[in-house]
Each structure stands twice: as structure tokens, then as C-alpha cells.
Amino acid sequence: MGVLDVVPTGVLTGDNVRKLFDYAKEHQNVTSSSVANAVLEAARDIKSPIIIQVSQGGAAYFAGKGLPNDKQQASIIGAVSAAHHVRLMSKIYGVPVIMHSDHCAEKLLPWFDGMLEADEAYFKQHNEPLFSSHMLDLSEDPKEKNIEICAKYYKRMAPIGLWLEMEIGITGGEEDGVDNTGADNASLYTQPEDVYDVYTTLSKIGPNFSIAAAFGNVHGVYKPGNVKLLPDLLGKHQEYVAGKVPGSKKPLYLVFHGGSGSSKEEIATAVSNGVVKMNVDTDTQFAYLVGIRDFVLKKQAYLQTQVGNPEGDDKPNKKFYDPRVWVREGEKTLAERVKVACQDLGNVDRL
Ligand SMILES: [Zn+2]
Questions:
Q1: Is 168 exposed, middle or buried (0-12, 13-18, 19+ CB in 10 A)?
Q2: 32, 48, 111, 278: which sits with the fewest CB atoms below 10 Å from its CB?
Q3: Residue 152 located in a structural domain
């Protein structure tokens, strides 16, 4: 049985998100339609469902860096634009997609509110939300406040079929201007009791939520440092919560942030402990550059003037400087990296 026997193609919402999360997947940040299409192309080629997400900064970029964003207006409309683009195109590529938004810290809640309004408006017309899911990241707040705000939003999200991802404990490193490189070591490893507190509160509202618990994971790729990835901790969370919730071996849907730079063994352990989603952004950012960089370096002599290259002073260079040619090279290397990430997660030939 394939994934398409369980869920349709296109952007999934409601219980279909949970059905798909019973298959672990790679999570891909997009910043433009070029990146989004390359991810969809990769997913189609390896017959894999895929998660596409926009960060607050990525969403603003999707709308265009020339727009003001002082009230999160560019991040809101950019995320909405990306969601509509992915809704249209995922059907054409024939893959199921979870359309998600990434970390939203307390100071960015106006961004979250804007997306939620778009979801509610879409729900009125189509009986489902625009996005599949959103992430709230109040991990910098005290636990009680974190859970309280998540519960408040989830009460609004659950009735229209939105999945909630929340974070407890801190993902280290730096992403999208949020710098956790100085976070103290203990907060980089979430305790099972904290995960249980989240579970008990949110499961009273609905079953469609996931927890990004910290296990020494870090955004970005760095030289090996003193923070150690401990994916076995996630198994401890499952055991702890299962011990209090009869009839379930793995009650938690867990999320792996900062997947770039992780070994195949670490990924496999995380997946076996109930990770349903791994974010890979840094590695795919680099992959997008590689194709473009190599093309520009190789064709340097054809990119200096519009006319004239080593083959003759009157030879036109249009077929080298056309963005469809060199941007395409980045799309190809990006798509290859997406395929590798999906293979690492055992997420190929699933449709
Ligand atoms: Zn993250």
C-alpha cells in the first residue's frame, strides 16, 4: 500500500496530516517559487510525500525583499503566496504535501495571527485551512507560559483542521536572525516531564500536534563542538509518556530541527524514536548555490558581455545569462540534495 492509498495529492489538512505523519519525512524550507518547484520535482521523481515550509524571513523573501515588513506584512503575504503556489503546483506534480510555517517566536506573533486569519478565510470558502500546519516556538518563555500560549492558539486551530508544532527546550545555533548560540547546555536537552506536560495539555484539545523537543540539535552546520546530539533521548520521552497513557507505545509525534549535518545513524535513531519530520535547510541552501556557482565559474568567459565570447566576437551569450539557464542549475543540485535527505529518512518510493 502506498501513501496515495491513504491521502490524496496536493496540500493536506486535518486528519490527513496525521495520516501522512505516520510516514517520516523531510522538511524543506523554501524562499522562492524556484526552490518550491525544485523540491516538488525531487519529491515527484523519488515518489515521496514532502513537507514544504516557509520561515518568517523566507516568507518575506517570497513576497520580495523590497516590501516593508515592520508589521510582518511581507511575511504574512509571502507565506500566503507560497501556500497558494504550493497548493496549485503540488497537484500538478502529483505529490502529497504538508504546507507548514516554521519557528514563530513571541515577538513574531503578528505574523502567526496574519497566517491564521488567511487560514480562517480559506476555511470559510473551502472547508479546510490554507496551510496544513504552523509552528509556534515559545521555547524562550518559561514552560508554563509556553504551553499556555500554545494551548490558546491550538484551540483556535484544531476546529479548522490545522496541525500545531510547538517547541520545548531550545534548538541551538542561529537561524533566521534568532541566535541561540549562547543557550545554556541544559536547555538544549528537553526533559521527559516537560514533554508530558505539553502532551497532557494539548491532547485534551485535539490529536493533531507535534513536539520539537531538544536533544542537542543545532540549526546550521558547524565543526563538531561540545553539544552532542542524543536522539536516544527521544525514545525516553516516548517511554515516559507511554507509561502514563495506556495503550500507546509511541504517543508522541516528534520533530527534528537542525537536521543538516547529521549522520545517517543519528537520523535513523531519531526516526525509530518517533520523529515524523526532519528539517533540512542549511544543507539544501548550500546545494542550491553549488549548481549556480559551478555554472558561473565554468562559463565565466560567456558571462562578461551580452555579445562576444571565446567562440567569436559576434557570438551572443543570451543562452548563458538567461536566468532560466543558471538558476536551473541550482534547482538541479538542490533537488539532488532533497533526494538524499529523503533517502536518509527512508522516504522514497512511497506513493
Ligand atoms: Zn528549526
A1: buried
A2: 32
A3: yes
